[in-house]
Design brief:
By secondary structure, the chain is of the alpha+beta class. It has seven helices and 14 strands. The strands form four sheets. Strands 6, 7, 8, 9, 10, 13 and 14 form a seven-stranded mixed β-sheet that branches. The protein has a three-stranded antiparallel β-sheet with strand order 2-3-4.
């Protein structure tokens, strides 16, 4: 089963005296409306906005806790029940995907500010410590940049061109230990940098240049059962036309090839999602239920997301 949730980022603050920023996205219970930039601003709403049906929405005032209660809690339930799941943040560059998944920094901050990953880790250890069964928790972290994968918990962190790489799995026995593992992963990441001149400074996120993965593995020792949850922070899609790129995320000649590669991988990912949707809608139909995820092999991103890597 799958679901699609939309979280609306707050409008960027404008300079003093500037007009109120235009609202381009609206949400209600199960729909999201997006203004079509190709249409005139004064066009009728029926023409100006496009509506999409989704599983649910989070408005601009939604908290990290709201996201966790709706998405993270069921993922932890599934993990403890022995099922695998994948949570993917997908959207344009600069819309808050990394903030939703990982918050603004690492370390021993309030776990409500850590984003979905920190919330899931905290609740998982809370549940594991209270459970009568014995559990083992492991963490893996890696990134995909161009067509190479980087195991962020290996030493040294080096590119691996394999289509089926394996990743270091670090056993952790507490929330604090798990957060330290994530800090170690960020030290080798393309998407995070220290907030100051010293390594002791907390990490801050950069505009994603790589697709980032965190995998939590849970082993139920008594039942001899293993389950996983993947949290995936995709690099944002972005127009290669400088006229349509946000000023803070301008395309340069140096990274144009990299962004083109990212956009191609995201296109392959979109095709896989569409194929999954078609297979889900055809469930019970002998023809539609045999739909194959043929686009899974089209890029390094979709290859690593495939079931063979779980």
């Amino acid at each position: 089963t799958g679901s699609v949730w939309v979280r609306v980022a707050p409008a960027h603050p404008e300079a003093p005296g500037a007009p109120e920023p235009e609202t381009v996205v609206g949400v209600d219970d199960g729909h999201v409306a997006v203004r079509d930039p190709r249409e005139p601003v004064d066009a009728p709403s029926s023409q100006n906005y496009r509506r999409f049906r989704v599983s649910g929405t989070f408005g601009a005032d939604a908290s990290q806790g709201d996201v966790h209660e709706t998405i993270g809690v069921p993922a932890v339930d599934w993990l403890l029940d022995g099922f695998n799941s994948t949570l993917v943040a997908f959207g344009e560059v600069g819309t808050g995907k990394t903030h939703s998944l990982f918050g603004g920094a690492g370390g021993e901050r309030s776990w409500q500010d850590q984003g979905l990953c920190g919330n899931v880790i905290s609740q998982l250890f809370e549940r594991v410590e209270a459970a009568p069964s014995e559990f083992v928790v492991g963490i893996s972290a890696w990134e995909i940049l161009n067509n190479d994968t980087f195991d962020l918990l290996a030493y040294p962190v080096e590119p691996n061109p394999s289509t089926q790489p394996t990743f270091t799995n670090v056993r952790t026995n507490s929330r604090a230990a798990a957060l330290k593992v994530l800090e170690r992963a960020r030290a080798g990441s393309q998407n995070w940098t220290h907030g100051g001149a010293h390594d002791s400074e907390p990490f801050v996120s950069l505009p994603n240049s790589a697709h980032a993965f965190v995998r939590l593995t849970l082993v139920n020792v008594q039942k001899r059962r293993c389950s996983t949850v993947h949290l995936v922070d995709l690099a944002g899609s972005q127009s290669l036309d400088r006229r349509h790129s946000p000023r803070a995320f301008q395309i340069t000649a140096e990274n144009a090839k990299e962004r083109k590669n990212i956009n191609q991988q995201l296109l392959a990912f979109s095709r896989v999602v569409q194929e999954m949707s078609q297979a889900n809608e055809g469930r019970g139909d002998s023809v539609a239920s045999e739909v194959k995820l043929i686009s899974m092999r089209d890029s390094r991103l979709t290859q690593v997301l495939g079931p063979v890597m779980a």
